[in-house]
Every structure is written in C-alpha cells, then in structure tokens.
Specification:
The complex is a heterodimer of chains A (317) and B (341). Chain A is mostly helical. Chain A has one domain: ABC transporter involved in vitamin B12 uptake, BtuC (Orthogonal Bundle), CATH 1.10.3470. Helix content of chain A is 73%, strand content 1%. In chain A, α2 packs antiparallel against α11 and α7 crosses α9. Chain B has a two-stranded antiparallel ribbon with strand order 1-2. The longest helix of chain B is centred in the C-terminal third of the chain and has 32 residues. The radius of gyration of chain B is 21 Å and the shape is globular. Classes of the chains: A mainly alpha (317), B mainly alpha (341).
Chain lengths: 317, 341
C-alpha cells in the first residue's frame, strides 16, 4: 500500500467527518450557530494547551502539570484583574507566570536531566495543593469589562476564536518552517545526533517547556475572559485530555514525529463526543468511556502500522 | 571478598532507603512533639498513641496497595495510570454484584477480583502483546475504566448497606490490628518475595534495564509483562474491596487521583522511573513517609486552625519528591563536575 505522508492525520479527520455527518443526518439540531460557537469557544483553551503539548511531546518529553499551571495562571490573572489591572495587561501577565512555571520544569528536566514525567508529577501535585492552600477553593469574582473584553457575548466569542485560530496557525507554520521548530523535531528524533549536528538539545528541551508554560498562560487567559468568575479547579484533568488529543492526532509519544494540525483535529474529535452523545439521545455518562476507547483505538492503529512496517523491513533485508 | 567492612557499612548507610528512614523518623518525632488532636469522644489524643498509628495504617492501605502493584511495573520501565480507575470500576462491579444481582459475598469477592484481573489483562494485551507504549495505553484505560464505572451507575448510584461482616474488613480489627493491615502485609510480603527472591523478579529488573537484551538472553518478555500488569489488576481489585469496606459505600468516583499518590510513593521510595532499579522496601517507606506526613499535619494545632492538612501535605509531598530526585542525582552531578575540572 502506498504510504501517504498524512495518512494518520487524514484518518482521524475522516472519523471526525463521519461523526459530523452522522450528526447532520440524525441530529440536525447540533448545527445551530450559537451552541456550536459556544462549544468551539469552550474548547479554545484546551486547543492552545494542546499546541504546547505537541511541542513538548515532539522533543520526547511529557508534561502532566499543565492542568495545575492552567489553574494557577487563571486564578492569578483573575486576582490581578480584580485588583485593577486593565484587561490587555492580563495576557502578558499570564504568559510571564506560565512561562516561569514552565521554566522551573525546564530547569529540573533539561538542566538536571531528571525524568520529565516525575518532575511534572511533583509539579502537578505541588501546584494544585498550593493553590488550594492559598485560596481554599474560593472563586475569584472578576470586575466588569473583563468578561468578553467588555463586548457582547457573540462578539467576544468571535474574537476569542479568531485569536486562537491565528495563534494555532502561526505555531503550526513555525513548527514546520522556522528553524527552532525543526530543532524540536531533531532533538525528539535523536538528541545525541542533534547535538553532534551542532544543536543544543538541553536548551531546546528547556525552551519547549517554557513554550508550553507560556501557551498555558495564554490559554488560562482565554478561559478567564469567558465567565464572570474564575474557578480554581478549571484545569482539573486537563493534562489527560490534552495528551489524549495529541496521541489521537498522531504525534508519536517517542518523539520527533507528528503534526500540530493532527493534534488539533484529535482534540476536536474528543470534544465532539460529549455533544454528539447528548444530541443522539444517549447518556452523557458514556463520554469518558468513549474517550478512552478512542485513545486505545488510536494507539492500536499506530501499533499495528508499526508492526507491519517492521515486518516489511525484515522481508527486504 | 575485596570489600572491606567499611565499604559494606557505607553501602548500607548511603542507600536511598536509609534517607527515607531518617525522613520518616524526623517526621514522626516532630509530630510526636508538636501534634495534638481531639478525637471523636472529645479526648485529646497525642500523635504517639497506638490508635493514631492504626488510623494512619487504615487510611494509607489503599494507596499502599496500589503503590505495591505499581512497583514491579515501574521496575520493568512501564507505568500504569489506570490503577485507581480500575479500583473505581471494581468497587462498582462489587456493588452491582452484591446489590443488583444479589450474589453472596463468597461469590461476589472472587468475581470482583476476576474483574480486576480482566482489567489488568486489557492493559497486558495491549502492552505486552502488541508492544504499545504503557503510558498511552494506560492513559486510555484510565479514561475507559472510570468511564465504564460512571456509565454503569449513570453517574449517580451509590451502593451502601453492605453486610457487617464485610464492613469489618475495612473498619474492624483482627488480632488487635486493623483488619485490612493483614491484607496489606500479605501483599507486601508477596511482592517482596516476587521482586527480590524469585527468578521472575530478576527477569522484571532485566526487562527494565534492557528489553531487547532481555529478549536475546532468553527472558520471555511478553509473559513477564503480562504477569505484572494482570497482577496489578488483581491488587487494584483487592484495594477496591478494602476501600469499599472502609467507607461503607461504592461510588463511581472512588479513589479519584490515587494513582498520583501511588506513583509518588513508588518514586519517592527510590524506584527509577526508567526501570531496573528499586525495591519493595523503598516503596513501603515511601508510602509511610507520605501517610505520616498527611496524618501528622492534621494533628498540628496551626494546621487545624487553618483547616488545610490535605493541601499542605500535597505541597510538601511534591517538594519531597523533587528533593529525593535531586538527592538521587547528586553523585552523578558531582562526578560530572569533577571530571570537567
């Protein structure tokens, strides 16, 4: 069989297309402008974090602390807004706070060479409980003019979606065409080879974590402007959702392979399940089970492909 | 033997477990000195009382069981994120078997263990059979098992009113010690024998060091991995029974987030996440350090006033984990610096 370049990504997109088509036939009510717009806006923060996670996983690392970082960024941004900072200043604030937390991860992982899953596990627990300790689960009430940037809801949603779209497109372009983007691929494919080729793998890995932190800060900001209050638990479980999207989207967990747009399609697929269940009159409690099944199918397909590839290689040798 | 007596002592003194033991003793003494607490009857109980220690044991049993199940898996350089979800699923299965189907305990308990084994077998089939990455497979089953538990109960049903004979497993005492402690000790001894005193344990470490090499050395890698993951499923089911008996209820959100604490305990215990290195004793000490910290903080007057034992212990556990990692890296870092000079 001919090996297409985007085979995996197209398969996921086709599955998403099937679900959307099925909804169009059996539940046309799904295609109303307002609920659809709300769904897309609700998923925008996860999409931004997914982009950062793609970068980290491409460099053969993983970060499971994004959920906690997301919550911390959201609450701190909310507190800043409540103490009178203007809306536009929240974005750089979020980027700085998130980037700083990403840098802490990066120092431990790239600087000291500690395993990323353990370091970010420690960060996940420490940040989540630290936030609980200082806020005791309190909501932050935002001043007027922060929700939807002081615009009407529809306009605010459109602004959020456009900004997210531009950001994702820029990142997707950068990963393919800018030299730093290619460095992430190179380090993830083979760190030692990339070092011999003149790159600095540790610096690249460090940057990947800072990028993810900064993007998480932006995502938290995009989440903050959507409601009149900031929930301290807003990022709970986000890490698993985002990693699932990346895996479903065909980014190899062993690093160096995959495309950002694939992960974005993966996230859309996972995000569509819950409304699809509702509109098809099934119990919404099945959502998690379906998400798990989709992850397993995705990894199964990948494994079978790798296995047949191995078999072909031995045939020829 | 070329080793002198001094170097043998040094090897014992500078082990990771020794560090944990010191941390544990320091923690214990601190809480003994500063901790007080009023119990249900309004009597002030110090940290040092036997009741208090048994309480700690009771509350750390489930996380301890999960951590024990994870130890051999992490020794093979694998990971299992789905243990706590499987615990939730098994709790629901047990609840349905006893309540909706109406089976007696003597049938329901083995069937629940079987369900746990089957859950582990799903992981094993994908990881050992098809050689898929454990992190992603168990991330999938993490969602799948919890999702099935939620779907089976409609997210709302809670099973309560278990027979008192079963509740004794989680709340009663047997020979003066909390009943579940016997299960915990049994599993711990079994795991210790498996990891440190059996051929299979050797193989598990070999796989962790070099899976390819193990294959060429004649180790049946697939069989070993299958065994380890199915065992984790069985132990998760046992933990589900203990959890249900302790709380007297089975709910779909049983033990959410326990996998993080279990993994933390294993890694804190000195088991390398890259496999091959680690011990069951280390895991037990890791569990003890976390459990004493959590329970001890709840006895400090300052913490009681702030009502933040859970949060503070989480924060400190995260910090302790990073600290243990950095300490573990120190010899390597120092030698790297020395060589550069």
């Amino acid at each position: 069989m001919k090996d297409w370049r985007y085979r995996r990504e197209l398969a996921v997109a086709a599955l998403l297309g099937c679900i959307l088509l099925g909804l169009a036939i059996w539940a046309p009510a799904f295609y109303q402008a307002q609920p659809l717009l709300s769904l897309a806006t609700r998923e925008a923060p996860s999409l931004i974090v997914t982009c950062g996670m793609v970068i980290v996983i491409l460099t053969r690392q993983i970060d499971i602390s994004v959920g906690s970082m997301f919550s911390v960024c959201g609450v701190v941004c909310g507190l800043l807004a409540a103490s009178g900072w203007p809306v536009w200043s929240l974005l750089p604030a979020g980027v700085v706070i998130g980037g700083a937390m990403g840098a802490v991860n990066g120092v431990f992982i790239a600087g000291l060479g500690l395993p990323s899953i353990v370091v970010t596990l420690a960060m996940l627990v420490a940040l989540r409980q630290g936030l609980n300790l200082f806020r005791q689960g309190e909501f932050v009430t935002l001043p007027d003019g922060v929700q939807w940037f002081g615009m009407s809801q529809v306009h605010g949603q459109i602004v959020v979606l456009c900004a997210t779209g531009v950001l994702v497109a820029l990142l997707a372009y950068g990963l393919q065409r800018i030299s730093l983007g290619r460095h992430f691929y190179a380090v993830g494919s083979d760190a030692e080879a990339s070092r011999l080729a003149g790159l600095k793998p540790r610096r690249v890995t460090f940057l990947a974590f800072v990028f993810l932190g900064a993007l998480t800060g932006i995502a938290a900001m995009v989440n903050v402007v959507q409601s009149p209050q900031v929930q301290p638990l807003s990022g709970y479980g986000m890490e698993l959702k985002v990693i699932a999207a990346v895996v479903v989207g065909g980014v190899a967990i062993s690093g160096g392979r995959g495309y950002l747009w694939g992960a974005a399609v993966g996230l859309l697929l996972l995000a569509c399940i819950s409304p699809a269940l509702v509109y098809l009159h099934m119990e919404a409690y099945w959502e998690k089970a379906f998400q798990g099944a989709i992850i397993l199918v995705a990894v199964l397909a990948e494994g079978l492909r790798a296995r047949s590839a191995r078999r072909h290689r031995t045939d020829f040798s | 033997m070329k080793f002198s007596a001094g170097s043998a002592w040094r090897r014992i003194l500078f082990r990771h477990e020794m560090l944990l033991l010191v941390v544990l003793i320091v923690e214990w003494l601190l809480f003994l000195h500063f901790g007080t607490m009023t119990n249900r009857r309004g009597v002030t109980v110090g940290f040092g009382t036997l009741d208090r220690q048994f309480d700690i044991l009771r509350h750390s049993c489930e996380i301890g069981l999960l951590a024990l199940a994870l130890t051999p898996i992490i020794l093979t350089a694998g990971i299992d994120l789905s243990v706590a979800s499987l615990l939730g699923l098994c709790a629901i299965v047990f609840g349905q078997l006893t309540h909706d189907v109406g089976l007696p305990l003597s049938l329901a308990i083995p069937l629940t263990l079987l369900a746990g084994g089957l859950g582990g077998a799903v992981n094993a089939g994908l990881i050992a059979g098809l050689r898929l990455p454990p992190l992603i497979v168990t991330l999938g089953t993490y969602s799948l098992f919890r999702g099935l538990a939620e779907a089976m109960t409609g997210g709302a049903v809670t099973y309560t009113q278990f027979p008192s004979g079963f509740l004794a497993l989680g709340q009663g005492r047997w020979l003066g010690v909390p009943a579940q402690a016997w299960i915990f000790v049994g599993v711990a001894v079994g795991m210790w024998m498996l990891v440190h005193r059996s051929v299979a344990g050797r193989f598990i470490r070999v796989i962790g060091f070099a899976p390819e090499g193990a294959q060429y050395a004649g180790v049946r890698v697939g069989k070993c991995l299958t065994f380890v993951y199915v065992l984790a499923g069985l132990v998760s089911a046992a933990a589900a029974l203990v959890y249900t008996a302790r709380l007297g209820q089975a709910k779909a959100d049983a033990a959410v987030g326990y996998e993080l604490y279990a993994i933390t305990a294993v890694v804190l215990g000195g088991t390398s996440i890259f496999g091959g290195k680690g011990s069951v004793t280390g895991t037990l000490l890791g569990v003890a350090v976390i459990a004493v910290l959590k329970n001890g903080l709840a006895t400090l007057p300052v913490v009681i006033r702030m009502n933040s034992a859970e949060e503070l212990s989480g924060l400190l556990t995260g910090g302790l984990l990073l600290f243990a990692l950095v300490i573990g890296m120190l010899p390597k870092l120092l030698s790297a610096v020395c060589i550069r000079r």
